[in-house]
Design a protein that fits this description.
Blueprint lengths: L2 H6 L12 H10 L3 H9 L5 H14 L2 H11 L8 H14 L2
Helix pairs in contact: 2-3, 2-4, 3-4, 4-5, 4-6
């Protein structure tokens, strides 16, 4: 799935069944459902992709200490860019990974 297809899927009532939980978390976040996004990000806390999305979600929430913990778990530096730019960067990276 391309980033454009992923963004277009936001018009659907549910995320595509083929998306992993990290991408489902981003999907729900894009629709403004932080709680559902957070629940998806927590499903596999050992997955670095899920940890990256988890970090983003806590940064968005304003819980920067918790976000920093999840960035460390993801092996990623703490993000400094705008939230929308980070969302796009994460989505593109996850969609490009095998």
């Amino acid at each position: 799935m391309t980033l454009e297809e992923f963004r277009a899927s936001l018009m659907m009532p549910e995320p595509s069944s083929g998306l992993d939980m990290a991408l489902q978390a981003l999907w729900w976040d894009a629709l403004g459902n932080w709680d559902r996004a957070h629940a998806c990000a927590q499903v596999d806390e050992a997955d670095p992709s899920a940890a990256w999305v988890h970090a983003y979600l806590h940064r968005k929430e304003g819980d920067l200490a918790n976000a920093a913990y999840w960035y460390r778990r993801a092996g990623r530096p703490v993000a400094r860019e705008e939230l929308e730019a980070e969302w796009l960067m994460i989505a593109a990276a996850l969609l490009a990974s095998p």
